[in-house]
Amino acid sequence: MNSADCERVRVHFTPSYGGVVTHSLCVRATCYKSPPPLHQSHLCSCLLQALEEFGPFRAFWCMPWEAFLQILKRMFDMCNWKSAPYTVAKHWATKSVMHYRDPARGSWFKDEVLPASEFKTDVGAVAAQSQLVRGLLTLPGEPPESLRFLKSVSRGPEEVRLGDWVLLEQVGARVMVGRVDQMIQVSFKEEVNSFIRMWCSQCKEVHEEPATLALWSAPGLSGACMLVKFERMQVRVVSRSTNGVRDELV
Predict the structure, then answer these.
(1) Are residues 145 and 224 in the same domain?
(2) Is omega for the bond preceding 157 within 30 degrees of 0, making it cis?
(3) What is the rounded distance in angstroms from the CA atom of residue 180 to the CA atom of residue 169?
(4) Per-residue DSSP letter, 212
(5) 70 inside domain
(6) Of 122, 145, 128, 147, which Cα lies nearest the Cα of 197?
(7) How far apart, in whole angstroms, are the C-alpha atoms of residue 56 and residue 19?
């Protein structure tokens, strides 16, 4: 659009559009007692100001949260205006949880795996070559019906791969750090879903620096190992560096 077109818009279209806005407000004024309720009519006058300031319209966008005001009004009516903050907060928290929950499964996250082998049913033969499977067979309960080895597993935004250093957190237990050596996906005869099991070596307890909140562990190698039940722990990938005094975890 050249300068002549812009001038025609300013001289001819803008006054005409202003007349439409004025007529709309006058019609509303005849339907209501003075002063007329504007409600969403103020949008027309805002558009006129934007037209004069920025020129012809190229796109239109309306703030989506204004429509939520009607929901708030109904919520306030239900709670008699006394517990409104609690009611609104509970509503938003519920909507947030339902947004992140995967309705196709009974868990909050959908685990995705990258297999390194096919499913195997001869668990005893596999146990002869895998320390993870041998440790799994020592646990109480039914032995796994089939299993396969994995290269990586993802839970939400977190991806764990072989060789990664991970923080292992569980309520009521010490926070540990270890290196992922093996991962398998196992299925049991009486279970509908499959499960992820990890074998972590070089496991050490994690400490937190009170002043800086930095995480660290004792230096050197560790012979401790852990069998990790992926669905029962918070697993977070970290970077490990050592300075001879302690191992820094970031």
Answers:
(1) yes
(2) no
(3) 15
(4) T
(5) no
(6) 147
(7) 17
Specify whether the CB–CB gap between 23 and 48 falls below 8 A. no
pLDDT per residue as tens digits for the range 109-123 = 567 899 999 999 999
Tokens of 116: 């390194």
Domain count, the chain: 2
20 and 144 both lie in a single domain: no
- pLDDT tens for the chain, residues 1 to 250: 566 766 666 666 666 666 655 555 554 555 545 554 444 555 666 766 776 777 666 666 655 556 667 777 777 777 766 677 777 777 777 776 666 555 555 555 567 899 999 999 999 999 999 999 999 999 988 889 999 999 999 987 789 999 999 999 988 899 999 999 999 999 998 888 889 999 999 999 999 988 888 899 998 888 899 999 998 888 999 999 988 889 999 8
**DSSP, residue by residue, 119-140:** -BS-HHHHHTT-HHHHHHHTSS
Q: Is residue 50, in this structure, part of any structural domain at all? A: yes
Token readout for 9 is: 């818009």
175, part of any domain? yes
Is this model's pTM higher than 0.90 or not? no
126 and 19 part of one domain = no
34: containing domain: 1-62
CATH number at residue 134: 2.30.30
Residue 95 in domain: no
10's tokens: 């300013």
Q: Are residues 245 and 123 in the same domain?
A: yes
Are 230 and 156 in contact by the 8 Å Cβ rule? The answer is no
